[in-house]
Design brief:
The protein is an alpha/beta fold. The chain has seven helices and nine strands; from the N terminus they run βαβαβαβαβαβαββαβ. Strands 2-8-7-3-6-4-5 form a seven-stranded mixed β-sheet. Strand 4, helix 4 and strand 5 form a beta-alpha-beta unit.
């Protein structure tokens, strides 16, 4: 993607500009959403903590120049949840393939899983690797939903984090937060688990970073948000969605000042 490119969109919720070209496999009820074996656990520790985290941290901070602000909110939440031993959810905007590692870096040293599209587990030979790194794919059939939901619940009860991208699709370098449904907020409501929001913003490079062609990324983390247990589930889900959207869209509007790619709604006069 080149600086100054203009992308026309029609539907904020469904248009996808990731451009992966991957032919997605079906994720059915037989899919192992939550592997439990000892060998998997050992491989998971090696792949996640000894390989992925060091490599990704180097790419993020040394190569691309990310900064993360507000990790203290996550540390405070971890201390709060220490007694119960439970985990929490992370809701983030989706503007780059590197977003997959937002959860792991924001939540470190806590293991962070990420809910992904079926594309992520569709490349031959890589399914096990992405699962070792924490991927939980969305099912493609209703019969697989109990296994998927059970995997999310198990990871939260194990004291881990689960990252969700409510916008669902990647819009590279997008500087605003797109409208999203309340559906993905049913998990914290159902489990009575808190959530934090993470917003990736784009700003101008500092003078010593001008050799990099893309904008500087500043990542912000919100204070913890909690589902309202006094409300019926549908209302609690909508309320939590609205709180998350308000914080994400407000943060993006305040701090995203570099429009590397411009998104224009079809039919508008812009």
């Amino acid at each position: 993607m080149k600086r100054g490119e203009v992308i026309e969109y029609r539907d904020e919720r469904n248009d996808d500009f990731a451009g992966t070209g991957i032919s997605a496999v079906e994720v059915k009820k037989e899919f192992p959403f939550c592997p439990k074996g000892l060998l998997f656990r050992i491989g998971e520790f090696i792949a996640y903590y000894l390989i992925a985290i060091p490599v990704v941290a180097f790419i993020w901070f040394a190569v691309t120049g990310f900064t993360i602000e507000g990790r203290g909110h996550v540390r405070a939440l971890r201390r709060e949840l220490k007694k119960s031993g439970r985990g929490f959810f992370v809701y983030a905007n989706h503007t780059h393939w590197l977003d997959a590692f937002l959860g792991p870096l924001v939540c470190f040293p806590k293991k962070a899983h990420v809910i992904v599209s079926p594309d992520t587990v569709s490349i031959k030979g890589l399914r096990v690797i992405v699962q070792l790194l924490g991927a939980i794919p969305l099912p493609t059939e209703r019969a697989a939903m109990p296994g998927f939901v059970g995997a999310v619940e198990r990871r939260i009860n194990e004291g881990r984090a689960v990252t969700i991208f409510p916008e669902a699709h990647i819009w590279p370098f997008c500087t605003f937060v797109r409208d999203f449904k309340a559906g993905s907020f049913r998990y914290p409501v159902k489990l009575g688990a808190p959530a934090v929001c993470v917003c990736v913003t784009y700003t101008k490079r500092r003078w010593y970073e001008l050799f990099r062609k893309t904008p500087r990324r500043r990542v912000f983390v919100s204070p913890a948000m909690y589902p309202d247990a006094s409300l019926p589930d549908p209302a609690a889900k909508q309320k939590l969605r609205d709180e998350a959207f308000e914080w994400l869209s407000g943060t993006a509007a305040r701090y995203s000042r570099e429009e590397f790619v411009r998104y224009v709604k079809a039919g508008s006069e812009e």
